[in-house]
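Chain A, query sequence.
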Amino acid sequence: MQRYGRPRLGSFTRILFVIVLALVLFYGLFVWLDWSVHQTMYENKAGIDWFETVFYRGYTFVVAALLSLLVINPRIGRSDLWEAYSATH
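Chain A, predicted structure.
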């Protein structure tokens, strides 16, 4: 009787995974630093909240959430958004 073990990742796959993970990490740090610089500069020079100005006071995230609820199950009467609406009315 032959036992099949768990498939092993090759060294090339591991190195590729580490490189991709490092790139994602550095990109995330770059975005965080860039947003921090913009926020500080706009606040100090003009008294403006950069994040609220760029992202329309958070409505960008609300619209993205609502659109994702429609895309999950877009049939009328069957989507999560429709269920949430009908539960309140």
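Helices lie at 11-46, 50-54, 59-72, 80-88. Residues 55-89 form one domain.
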